[in-house]
């Protein structure tokens, strides 16, 4: 036969479950904060028609990237384009 719980017992059980859930959540949060941050930087990459990377420029050198596209287009008579790409930063 199933024993019925009193209101007091049910409230106590719910409080214990909530405390266990909070404890699990805090442990998960601690694990997340200890992992290394994945820092990214933006670079300009020059690609050809088949999406092969031809050249790469740091973010401040946008003008140089576009001038490289113009140069390659005139020189090789193919289409080239510049894309802004996020890449992982090197650790020092």
Report what the structure shows:
The protein has about 90 residues and is an alpha+beta fold. The protein has 2 domains: about 1-35; about 40-90. Helices cover about 45% and strands about 25% of the residues. The protein is built from 2 helices and 3 strands; from the N terminus they run αββαβ. It has helices spanning about 5-35, 60-75, and strands at about 40-50, 55-60, 80-90. The chain has a 3-stranded antiparallel beta sheet, with helices on one face. A hairpin with a 4-residue loop joins β1 (about 40-50) and β2 (about 55-60). The radius of gyration is 29 Å and the shape is rod-shaped. The termini are far apart. The model has no long low-confidence stretch (mean pLDDT about 85).
Brief rundown of the structure:
With 92 residues, this protein is α+β, with helices and mostly antiparallel strands. The chain has two domains: 35 residues; 49 residues. The chain is built from two helices and three strands; from the N terminus they run H-E-E-H-E.
Strand content: 25-35%
Shape: rod-shaped
- Low-pLDDT regions: none
Number of strands: 3
Largest sheet: 3 strands, antiparallel
Average pLDDT taken over every residue: 87
Distance between the termini: 67 Å
Strand order, largest beta sheet:
2-1-3
Radius of gyration: 29 Å
The tally of helices reads 2
> Which structural class should the secondary elements be placed in?
alpha+beta
What's the number of domains?
2
| Strand and helix order | HEEHE
Give the helix level as a range of percent. 40-55%
């Amino acid at each position: 036969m199933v024993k019925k719980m009193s209101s007091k017992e049910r409230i106590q059980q719910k409080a214990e479950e909530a405390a266990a859930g909070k404890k699990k959540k805090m442990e998960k949060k601690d694990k997340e904060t200890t992992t290394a941050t994945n820092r990214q930087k933006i670079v300009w990459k020059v690609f050809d028609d088949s999406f092969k990377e031809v050249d790469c420029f740091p973010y401040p050198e946008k003008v140089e990237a576009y001038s490289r596209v113009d140069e390659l287009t005139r020189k090789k008579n193919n289409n080239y384009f510049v894309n802004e790409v996020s890449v992982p930063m090197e650790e020092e």
